[in-house]
Every structure is written in C-alpha cells, then in structure tokens.
C-alpha cells in the first residue's frame, strides 16, 4: 500500500467522525448543525496537524544552544545584558538551517529606510513597499505554514517561561525545564495554542492581538507578524478546500446509498472509518446475530476473576478471551496440513477450521536461523489472475 499524505488521512478521519453520527444524513441538511460539525472538524484537523508538525525536527536549534555558553560566562552586568538580549531575540523564524540572523533583519530594515529617503517621490516609496510585500509573500509561499506557526509558538513559550525568572538567577538548573521543552518542540500546549491563534485570525482578529505577547514588547517585528498572517491565510485556504471536499463527499455518500428522511434505520449502512482501509457500521449486523455472538462470547468471559487473562499493560481494561499467542505454533510439535486449503471447497468456515485443526499430519520444523520455540500461526498467501493478493486463512 502506497503511503498516504497526512492531510488525506486526517480528512478521512474527519469524514468518519461525521459518518458515525446517528442519522447524520438527515441532520446534515440543517444549516446550523452542518456549520457546527464543520467547525468541530476544522478544530480537530488543526490540532492533529499541529501535533504532527515538526516531529523529529532537527534544525533551527542554534539560538537555543547559544544559551549554554552565555550561562557559563562570569557573573556580572555584561553577562546579564547578553542574557536579556538573547531572550529578546530568541523568537527566531523557522528556517531549515536555523540560521536566522536578527541583526541582518535589522540591517535590511535600515537599508530600506536609507533607500526610502533617497527616493523622494511617493510613487517610489510605494514601489519599494510593494517589492517588500512581494518578497515576504514569496518567502511564505516557499515555507510549510503549520511548522512555521508552531515553531513561532514554541519560541514564544520559551520566552514566556524564561521571562518569569530574573536573568540574575539563570543557571542550568533554573532554565533546563523550559529549554529542554523548546528543544524537543513537544510541549502539549503548543498545538492548542497554535490552533486557537489560527482560528482567531480566521475570525478577523489581527495576528498581533491574537498572539500571547505584550503590546510594544518588540519580540516580533512587523514583518514577522505579517508573515504569520500570511501563513494563517494559507491554512485558511486549505481549511476552506477541506470543508468543500467533506461536504461534497457526504452528499455523494447520501446519494449513492439513497439516504433520505425515510431511510430504514435497520438497513445496514457501511462507511469508511478514520483508519485507512477500515470500514465501520453500526447496524450491518442484525440484532439476532449480535445476540448470538454476545452469548457465545459470554461463555469465554464467565471465568473466575483470578483466572482472567488481562492484556499486559492495559490496566485491567482489555481482557484477552482468545489470543493468538495462546494457540501458537510450537516448532517440532504442531502439526500442519500438507498443502494449502482452497476456502471455496468448503461449505462453511466451521468445516474449514475443523480440517485445519484436526487433519494435520506434518510436523512444523523450526526454520533455519530461527532462535525461538514459538510463532504465531501464519497462513499462505496467493496472487489472483487480476494481480490482487489474498490469504488462504487467518493469521494467528
């Protein structure tokens, strides 16, 4: 199976969250409910995507690493001033090499001022501004917006935490917690904060007002704020496209399955789940069959508490009734049928299972190089004439 883009998998999971709602095809027609569901999907999509962004990211740590040498300098006013300057400049932009140079940015601003002064006419100043905006747009267009926004919040969180500690008290011990969290980019509050920021800007709040920074702090330049707004707009465009896709998909499902207000709820409806290749249904199994299944399972469940086989590390939440490891292959003892069995040659699955379990005649020998005595029972696979693979039995 080919790898699927994270966006596709996240959207698929979002669709599944709606398909699993009771009588969704009827409620979907209500404008208020539809907007509520799409809003929920939007928030979950943002949260999940931000959580997945910058996983195992190894670049851009230079500003964080620069703190250690500063902490090792002799105590004094000069060291304290360096630490204050480091804290002010720590909210760096996200770049592959992590070589953001704030001084260079300031020099660019200064060059812009000089160039503007040289151009006395209003038209020249406007042209210069247009070029600046175009350069920012091109830079934002070349970057992935979710990582860029998350990285900004990662650095803002580092600044926020260290700001509460006077620089005179900065040591490895007092800064380690905040610095380690920033280095790993895995603080649990990052995704919710970034999500709320993007949604706030989507509601019309300015990027400056939506950020958790004090007015006039100077932590982020006007260009950085503008780039953040542009990143949000890119994400908003993606969210709009996702909403249109989800709406179209749901309409196609309802049309294909002929779902109306008169649709019989007892009729089996199967829909794709949030996991790729998995389908779900709440009513495809009849009540009669479900009752038989529950009664059969009850016999396996009806054992003394001290004999129940709780799955390891499940905190007694998952009870193993029939686990493959309990009925595994034992090399040198387990018998197997000499040839693969054609499933179509049996009238019922029970007949096939009986043949597998009780007509084996060949001992399973330990494969060359294998060092274990046990193995989950495998199955043979075949490739049909159409090129599609299939299995002759159940693994385990």
TrEMBL record:
The protein's name in its UniProt record: DUF4246 domain-containing protein
Acidic residues compositional bias, start-end: 99-111
Pfam families listed in its UniProt record: DUF4246
UniProt-annotated stretches for the region Disordered: 95-126
Signal peptide stretch: none
PANTHER family in UniProt: FE2OG DIOXYGENASE DOMAIN-CONTAINING PROTEIN, IFI3P
InterPro entries, per database record: DUF4246, DUF4246_C
Domain DUF4246: 268-388
């Amino acid at each position: 199976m080919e790898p699927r883009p994270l966006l596709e998998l996240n959207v698929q999971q979002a669709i599944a969250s709606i398909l699993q709602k009771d009588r969704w095809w009827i409620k979907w027609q209500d404008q208020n409910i539809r907007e509520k569901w799409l809003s929920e999907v939007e928030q979950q999509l943002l949260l999940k995507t931000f959580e997945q962004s910058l996983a195992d990211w190894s670049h851009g740590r230079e500003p964080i690493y620069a703190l250690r040498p500063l902490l090792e300098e002799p105590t004094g006013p000069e060291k304290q001033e360096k630490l204050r300057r480091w804290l002010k400049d720590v909210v760096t932009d996200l770049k592959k090499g992590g070589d953001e140079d704030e001084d260079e940015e300031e020099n660019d601003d200064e060059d812009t001022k000089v160039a503007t002064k040289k151009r006395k006419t209003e038209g020249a100043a406007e042209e210069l501004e247009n070029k600046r905006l175009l350069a920012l747009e091109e830079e934002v267009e070349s970057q992935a917006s979710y990582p860029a926004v998350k990285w900004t919040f990662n650095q803002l969180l580092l600044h926020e935490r260290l700001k509460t500690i006077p620089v005179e008290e900065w040591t490895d011990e007092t800064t380690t917690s905040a610095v380690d969290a920033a280095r790993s980019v895995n603080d649990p509050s990052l995704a919710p904060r970034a999500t709320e920021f993007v949604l706030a800007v989507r509601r019309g709040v300015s990027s400056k007002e939506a950020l958790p920074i004090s007015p006039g702090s100077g932590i982020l330049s006007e260009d950085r704020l503008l780039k953040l707004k542009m990143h949000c707009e890119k994400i908003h465009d993606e969210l709009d496209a996702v909403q249109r896709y989800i709406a179209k998909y749901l309409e196609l499902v309802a049309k294909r399955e002929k779902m109306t207000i008169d649709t019989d709820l007892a009729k089996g409806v199967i829909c794709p789940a949030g996991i790729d290749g998995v389908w779900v249904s709440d009513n495809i199994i009849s009540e009669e069959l479900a009752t038989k299944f529950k009664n059969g399972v009850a016999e396996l469940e009806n054992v003394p508490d001290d004999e129940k086989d709780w799955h390891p590390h499940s905190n007694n939440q998952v009870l193993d009734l029939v686990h493959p490891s309990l009925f595994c292959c034992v090399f040198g003892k387990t018998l197997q049928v000499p040839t693969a069995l054609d499933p179509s040659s049996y009238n019922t699955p029970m007949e096939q299972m009986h043949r597998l379990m009780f007509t084996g005649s060949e001992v399973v020998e330990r494969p060359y190089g294998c060092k274990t005595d046990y193995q989950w029972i495998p199955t043979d696979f075949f490739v049909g004439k159409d090129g599609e693979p299939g299995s002759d039995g159940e693994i385990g």
